[in-house]
Amino acid sequence: EVQLVQSGAEVKKPGESLKISCKGSGYSFTSYWIGWVRQMPGKGLEWMGIIYPGDSDTRYSPSFQGQVTISADKSISTAYLQWSSLKASDTAMYYCARRIGENAFDIWGQGTMVTVSS
Amino acid sequence: SSELTQDPAVSVALGQTVRITCQGDSLRSYYASWYQQKPGQAPVLVIYGKNNRPSGIPDRFSGSSSGNTASLTITGAQAEDEADYYCNSRDSSGNHYVVFGGGTKLTVL
Fold it and tell me: Which of A14, A91, B39, B59 is paired with B52 by a 20 to 30 Å CA distance?
């Protein structure tokens, strides 16, 4: 079964760092781009960036450039999203998803809820 | 432009046909993909490319495009189709940037 499994929910304080993960299985992890999508409470989907695990080529949405870091470790079929200093406004559900074709994301992780509160 | 515009809410009577639209300049160059999201769940891809349905998606879902507008049509809407629907496409700049529409809340009456 093709799937992406994300790490569990996190509760952090402002200023703390965080790295969440997305592990792929059931397919060639290095052959598909993996994107990250934010969904703030009660809001829509926002594309954050995308990485090609085969060579770690990474692109960021201008809205998230400099705010987060996307990386991947192809040896363990895992992509990451990390923050160096969280803000309350980072509170959201974060999804990873596999891209096929031009822009379709066909496999989604279950989501990781990040709560940032003092 | 890197924006995709969707109507915030649409309703349809049970068993009737509904069209959900998505407008944006990038749609003149790229196909839209469509996602269904139910409360508390991850999005699910329902249409991609010219009019492709992933395995397991009912054939009452179809996609089309004309000019700067992409459409998702549900023919014979069912109660279980009530959900939020999002379109996405590549950004018109031609790189790997992706943009999502704001989403449409579909109510099945």
Answer: B39
